[in-house]
Amino acid sequence: MRRFFAVAITFVGLSFLSPVRLARAVPQSVDFQPVEAASVSAVMAPYNTITTGTVVLKILVSENGRVQDIKVQNAVASLTQSAVSSVRGWTFKPAMMDGTPVASSITVAAAFNTQCLFTAPSNALKLQAEPQPAAASGYQPVGVISANVSPCPYGATLLSASVVLQASIDASGNVARTRTLRDVPPYTAAAAQSLNGWKFAPAKFDGNPTESKVIVAFFFRQAAIAPGRR
What we know:
By secondary structure, the protein is of the alpha+beta class. The protein has a single domain, classed as TonB (TolA/TonB C-terminal domain, 2-Layer Sandwich). It has helices at 2-25, 80-88, 187-195, and strands spanning 32-33, 36-39, 53-61, 67-74, 91-93, 95-97, 100-102, 104-113, 125-126, 139-140, 143-147, 160-169, 175-182, 199-201, 203-205, 208-210, 212-221. The strands form five sheets. The chain has a six-stranded mixed beta sheet, sandwiched between helices. A three-stranded antiparallel beta sheet has the order 1-6-7, with no helix packed on it. A three-stranded antiparallel beta sheet has the order 9-11-14, with no helix packed on it. It is globular, with a radius of gyration of 24 Å.
């Protein structure tokens, strides 16, 4: 009888300990904060082009916030190199994983209206393929599915202007909110209104949709006039 009680007590004790051991074996969720902009400059177009369109880039950002690599996801003849050159000098707040800076990526788009058209150009960008994940973190940045170049706002008088916005894209691919990184009224309002009509594929972390950031630059220039800078 004593042996029976001893075995029973041992069994009960193990049954209480087992859940604790199992709980400790389950990995904790990872706290991942995506890349976002720290400082940006104007995105410019070559003075001799009248091409209108949208360039999409995937920027690999190092753990110290510097541009490490740029991959072109949508090219536009005569505009791509200008977009790449402009973005290369930007700085970023690096992605954070459990409080530690890590290399990761962010999508940057540059929409050019080089003739300052007052109606939206018809050559909308349409992409179906999403960016590939960053191998180091399992993070896949926001993808651009479709985009329209912003029309020039009525009453605009500048020879050229460059607006830069950072948008938070929710887990459904919708624009949740925007932050102005480079403000040039009245072009900023026109750019923000255009951005609301874009379509995005949400970012993913470990295969799950998650809210993240995308940066969109808009360039405007008056037609048939040598560009100025602001």
